[in-house]
Amino acid sequence: MEFLEILKAILFGIVEGITEWLPVSSTGHIILLDEFIKLKVSADFMEMFEVVIQLGAILEQLLTPDQYAVNVATKQGSQANVEYAIRLPGTDGSPVWLPVDAKFPLDAYEQLLAAYDTADAAQVEVAVKALKTRVKSFAKDVQTKYIDPPNTTDFAILFIPVEGLYAELVRAGMVEILQREYKVTLAGPTTMSALLNSLQMGFRTLAIQKRSSEVWKVLGAVKSEFDKFATVLEAAQNRLNQANSELDKLVGTRTRQIQRTLKNVETLPDESILAALPEEN
User: Fold this and answer.
1) What residues have CB less than 8 Å from 4, skipping those under 6 apart?
2) What is the reported pTM?
3) Strand 82-89 to strand 95-102: parallel, antiparallel, or no bridges (unpaired)?
4) How confident is the model over 215-238, as a mean pLDDT?
5) What is the enclosing helix (H) or strand (E) of 17?
6) Tens digit of pLDDT for each residue in 257-277?
7) pLDDT at residue 125 above 70?
8) Nearest partner of 47 among 120, 112, 106, judged by Cα
9) Which of 91, 165, 205, 272 has the least CB density, counted as fewest CB within 10 Å?
10) How many Å apart are CA 12 and CA 39, to the nearest integer?
């Protein structure tokens, strides 16, 4: 890597940290830097930063650190490392990797945009064909280097960091072609986020299944405590019923007995009552 590219890498890191709070996409930081500092860099350099900033940011936001890894040799006996691999649970406790590779054919995409500007259908057709050939070569490379069942899933993800380029590939029918011929799933930023959200739901379901025995133990303990609570509540209710019965006896039987005893006692007029009552000191 040339000195200017190393310098720009450092500047990218600084701008990424300073502008993190701004409501712009991850690749927007690249545009901001290019607006202020004009440093000519290679297409490989731009591709590297699209991968690191865009795909890395999406994975970091939607997955936990233990759910994916960086620079993983997913194929046994191979020294080729895929940029990212999602860690899926295997049957024997060892992980099953889902390779995620990112490619950005910047030159082919720019040629396609230039062909659109000419409004020449023939040039557009040639540019689309060149772009399809380039992406197919990426998919074949991913299939050869990174897909290795049962150590990995039987498919991999090819991440395209620009929505416009992803839309062009979808329009050209590349999603079906890559899945059928290379077992590679094409994903743009939005599609990648949706896919990772689906995987995250699967991780949560699996976590619940793994801890189902603990959940049943907790539920069993709650049931036991609830049974004890029901017994205590029943005893308290019996005591309340007994107290209510005793109160009924006091109010009913005793009151009637007192009334019968006082039945023949002459009732005094109000003035006599006041005179008969002792005065307060």
Assistant:
1) 39, 40, 41
2) 0.61
3) antiparallel
4) 68
5) helix 3-18
6) 766 766 655 555 656 555 655
7) yes
8) 106
9) 91
10) 12
